[in-house]
Design brief:
The chain is mostly helical. The protein has two domains: 7-162, no CATH class; 207-316, no CATH class. The chain has helices spanning 7-17, 32-45, 58-71, 81-86, 110-116, 124-130, 133-147, 152-160, 165-173, 190-207, 236-239, 252-259, 307-316, and strands at 24-25, 28-29, 93-97, 117-122, 229-232, 247-250, 263-265, 271-273. The strands form four sheets. A two-stranded antiparallel sheet has the order 1-2. Strand 7 (263-265) and strand 8 (271-273) form a beta hairpin. The longest helix has 18 residues, at 190-207. The mean pLDDT is 91.
Length: 320
């Protein structure tokens, strides 16, 4: 249920939202800040953002790039990091750096910004306002009417259809179909690779029911976090493949062992332990206990890891 809000405060923020400091470019005023704000409000609508500690997530980056493609028809580049950083200049958005870092200069790389950022946050009075459905809707309409009066008519039908670029990308990475969002062709760049990589890390453990495919370990924290990790079978730098069929869910020690070729998986989908491994068979943590063990497979054959990926790993990474 939405919390009550102060009408005077809403009017003040509507005024601020129509006076964003936009840099001038050869294509006109930069549209990034209003698109970023619209994207944040959308994720609050969907309950993806519910706390005033906003991190850089695949959902946020993908929503921003989708909204940019829908609303901006000039030749501006859809740089996500630009509004995330420069919105600080408008007085109601702030960044909190991780320990040992400063965020006093613009960082173009989304991965570098993510590595150095703890979280972004709104002024508390604004965030409280955004928790009210009616106030949030009014602020979103204000942004669309003021900055995108000529493209908002195209924006609403796509949003109301309940389909998104992010959902189609998830479907693609889950190997459930080959075609992604036909309506929006968003150019592949570092930010989209960040989105795909983030989704890979989420989707692989999910299809394996948050269970290590080798040890069978399943541990989920009270906050919903899991100890298992998404492991590429063929490194993304080599294959360019971040579908779940190029991944397995492993606990951290087995992830490291797999990456270093201490263990592998044969074409019968059985675990193989390197004969070069010096292992203490008396230790409860020894790797040799898994030799010959069948790999635990994910839900649905469409998500099964590809044999040819394991074949590559055995040929190129496994220590013989």
């Amino acid at each position: 249920m939405s919390i009550p809000f102060d009408e005077i405060l809403l009017k003040a923020y509507k005024r601020k939202f129509t006076k964003l400091r936009q840099g001038g470019t050869q294509y006109g005023k930069a549209p990034h800040k209003p698109v970023f704000l619209i994207s944040l409000l959308e994720l609050i609508d969907k309950h993806i953002i519910s706390d005033n500690r906003i991190t850089i997530t695949p959902e946020l980056v993908a929503t921003f790039k989708e909204n940019f493609a829908l609303l901006v028809k000039t030749a501006h580049k859809d740089d996500f990091t630009q509004p995330f950083f420069y919105l600080q200049h408008d007085g109601f958005w702030f960044l909190n750096a991780r320990l040992g870092y400063q965020l006093d200069q613009y960082i173009r790389s989304v991965q570098t910004l993510n590595d150095r950022l703890d979280y972004g946050y709104f002024d508390n009075s604004l965030f409280d306002l955004l928790m009210n459905d009616a106030a949030r809707s009014d602020l979103k309409r204000t942004l669309l009417d003021h900055y995108f009066s000529d493209t908002k008519a195209e924006f609403w039908p796509v949003k109301n259809a309940g389909r998104s670029y992010l959902q189609d990308m998830e479907t693609y990475l889950l190997n459930e179909k080959e075609v992604v969002y036909e309506k929006l062709q968003i150019k592949e760049d570092e930010e989209i690779r960040f989105v795909r990589g983030g989704l890979f890390k989420k989707l692989v453990p999910k299809v394996y029911d948050f269970t290590c495919a080798i040890s069978g370990m399943k541990v989920i924290g009270v906050d919903g976090s899991s100890l298992v990790e998404a492991c590429h079978i063929v490194p993304i730098s080599i294959s360019g493949d971040d579908k779940v069929t190029n991944g397995i869910s492993l606990c951290p020690n087995l992830h490291t062992a797999f990456d270093r070729g201490m263990i592998g998986v044969d074409e019968q989908l059985q675990v193989v332990v390197s004969p070069l491994l010096a292992d203490n068979p008396m230790s409860p943590y020894n790797l040799t206990q898994f030799h010959g063990k069948p790999l635990q497979l994910p839900f649905g054959k469409v998500h099964y890891p590809k044999i040819e990926h394991f074949r590559w790993h055995m040929q190129e990474r496994f220590r013989r």
